[in-house]
Amino acid sequence: MLGVGDTQPTTVLAHLWSSLRPLRRRATGVCALGVFALFVAGGAGAPADAAVTPCGPGIRVRPPRASEPVTAAFGARSYAAGDVASLRISARARTSATLRLFHAGPGRTLRRLGTHAAVVRPARHLRLRASTRRLVVRIGKWPSGLYFALVKTRRGMAAAPFVLRATGRRRTRVAVVLPTNTMAAYNLRDTDRNGYGNTWYADPRVQSVDLRRPVLPGRLPQWPGPFVRWFAHSGYSADFYSDEDLDSVASGRRLASRYNLVVFAGHEEYVTQHVFRMIKRYRDLGGNLAFLSANNFYARVAVSRSRMKCVGRFRDLGEPEAGLIGVQYVDWWRRRYPSRPFVVRSAAAARWLFRGTGLRKGHHFGGRYGIEIDARARSSPRGTRVIAELPSIFGPAKTAQMTYYRTRSGAKVFAAGAMGFGAPQSRGTARMLRNAWAYLRRR
Questions:
Q1: Which CATH homologous superfamily contains domain 176-440?
Q2: Which of 290, 243, 311 is nearest to 417 (CA)?
Q3: Has this prediction a pTM greater than 0.85?
Q4: Residue 247 CB-half CA count within 13 A
Q5: Does pLDDT of 119 surpass 50?
């Protein structure tokens, strides 16, 4: 994500286009929203008198004029087993439809959505009118994870994602946080029909994002499909959290009493002040952290009911993200720089990560890392060591760094430093993911 003033409008448009198209086959990051045709109004940026949000690129972008026979959205972004959810479905004309519920990760490929999923509730047949209706959906006693409803008509379909959070006393010692705030920010739906998406990514006048908007058709925004696919076949168990679920945890001490490890599985770009300080406190109490993507904890947001407002970049507000993660956001690929394999810089910095892989200093692993990158900064904790790098991947002085550090309290913090590490790219990287999970989940 580029901050305002970091680049020219044409470059920002290229960034938005790259973010909105599916990740190319040579990249496995999660910074993809789908294939959309984008047009900058009049070929220029935002008007000079427009109020520019701190997190927006500063230009207005038109979403596509796509036919949408049906849209769907849940009333909340997460539920617990047994909850009665409200699903809002809008149709343009009278039509028949089917409703199915899916668990993302296991199961078959759904190409139009760009994910793997297994049916957890068979088809329910619907008769829709040219209006909006609300359906009652009872959430089953399924494993904690990422789910979605799929409403399908003869002319199209609509997906409505939600996180099934863990409940009860029987919890695992690992929490996985999915980037639901980022998913909402990358949703370019134009709800007020002014010609621009109702998000700071598409209109600098937008100061807040409506979290209840249905997602646009096609591939789901910021969908962590590769990670949930790997997790589904890993044999591991974890408690999945949406960003708002994490925000509801009272304190870092409470989080530390529940979990040995908190995994940020995707592009966790936006978090609240409470989450930032809570995770920092969790670390200070000895809690372990794993950041499997890049550009995490970049900006502070404030969430009130169903709206999310971007306040500003943490580093500009006196709390650089590198002080917690070990690295901070550097740049994006600008539709010029291809993804690459990592180069091992110090196997000794994290012997546990390379155990059983045969990798040594100077060896390469993977092949499709990049898209957005992080690197150490002056604010990185003392003792933050570079494990591997993507040297000069985005040009001179723009190197991605995979890092690891430990605190005096015993906390272990791992950061991938680039997009693509959330799923295996080879046998060696599959072993690395398993090594990281096994090592970091132990206090």
A1: Class I glutamine amidotransferase (GATase) domain (3.40.50.880)
A2: 290
A3: yes
A4: 21
A5: yes
